[in-house]
Specification:
This protein has 2 helices and 9 strands. It has a single domain, classed as 3-Layer(aba) Sandwich (Trna Endonuclease, Chain: A, domain 1), CATH 3.40.1350. About 15% of the residues lie in helices and about 35% in strands. The protein has a 5-stranded mixed beta sheet. Strands 4, 7, 8 and 9 form a 4-stranded antiparallel beta sheet that branches. It starts with a helix and ends in a 9-residue tail after the last helix. A hairpin with a 2-residue loop joins strand 2 and strand 3.
């Protein structure tokens, strides 16, 4: 299946830019897709961002937990794992929603890399899980402005 990884990165960067974040792209992508900064209450916040687009196939079945499982080339305490959840037909469409997940919600697995699953997959589409609602959309963007983001 063709994915739109670069589109996902730029889409998330655009949404963050609209929310007042300054976005900086690396010369070489060796880990974080971009770095975002924002001045909040006189303090400059810096958030390294990795974007992992979720693109369900036609064969995808219902799952209680749905998100990202795999390798992360770099991790950082103040990082954001941005998960744009796309519909099955990604041609010309934006993601249904984006989760902005702190490092604390990304768990190291024994054999499969890292796991962060803030959504479920039901009847052909992803849906935020209740316990992770605060990380989705504008609420998630606002939570990123907390000086305690690493412990969110």
């Amino acid at each position: 299946m063709a994915t739109r990884d670069y589109f996902a990165e730029l889409y998330v960067a655009g949404i963050m830019g609209d929310a007042g974040w300054s976005v900086y792209f690396p010369k070489r992508d060796v880990g974080f897709d971009f770095i975002a900064s924002k001045e909040v209450s006189g303090c400059v916040l810096i958030r390294p961002v990795q974007v992992k687009g979720r693109y369900p196939s036609e064969e995808k079945t219902n799952k209680v937990a749905y998100g990202y499982i795999g390798k992360l080339s770099q991790v950082h305490d103040d990082m954001v794992l941005a998960l744009p959840f796309f519909p099955r037909d990604v041609t010309g469409v934006a993601p249904d929603f984006i989760a902005y997940m702190p490092r604390r919600s990304i768990n190291l697995q024994s054999s499969r890399g890292y796991a962060c699953q803030p959504a479920s997959f039901v009847s052909g589409s992803a849906r935020p899980r209740k316990t992770y609602l605060k990380y989705f959309g504008s609420a998630g963007l606002l939570l990123m402005e907390s000086p305690n983001w690493a412990n969110a």
